[in-house]
Hints:
It contains 7 helices and 7 strands, in the order αββαβαβαβαβαβα. By secondary structure, it is of the alpha/beta class. Helix 1 packs across helix 2 and helix 5 packs across helix 7.
Amino acid sequence: MTLSQKLVLAIIRLLCKIFLSWEVKGKENLSLSGPFIVTANHVHLLDPILLAVSFPRWINFMGKEELFRSPFLRLIIRWSGTFSAHRQGTIKEKQKVLRQAKDILDRGLILGMFPEGSRSRDGKLRMGKPGSAVIASQSSIFILPVGIVGTDKIKGMSWLWKRPSIVINVGEPFKLPPIGGKLNRSQRKSLTDLMMRRIAILLPPESRGVYLNNKANGN
């Protein structure tokens, strides 16, 4: 972590303590060393920032391509180590994203991903996309699941003095079963569902969405 990154995180942590009732649970799981993937639910624009200030190490996020269209945002995002992912990209673009993700992990860093692909407008967990699971399975690397609770309360300006309660639930790290060769559609879905259920159990039942009672698997 660079000096500028440490300084920025220190300032943001102070602001979080002022404007939020912010709590991190499962801190013992943050001691995981080496490269790993952080996967979390996504409800609010502040979710990646809250994850960043909750971890002792810097997280390199995968972000949607639209964020890079603003020159100002692009400058900040690139400084943070975030790289772009096309939601409906070509096979070549998707392969490039996978290479960038694996490069981060090969350098022993943390990769942050929101498997839903975009924010959930109703606060309920949506069907996960397979990218995170594919990378984790092929790399035989740990996944650290996180459930972010309470950011749906950050609306308008009134939250600045209401100090909404935000909980970052950090689950136990796990590995997906390795599958040799190219994954077929069924295998990708199975691995993705397994990963998403690890996030779902860190959320209150009303926020588990399609993963409530394992509905994603039809159970």
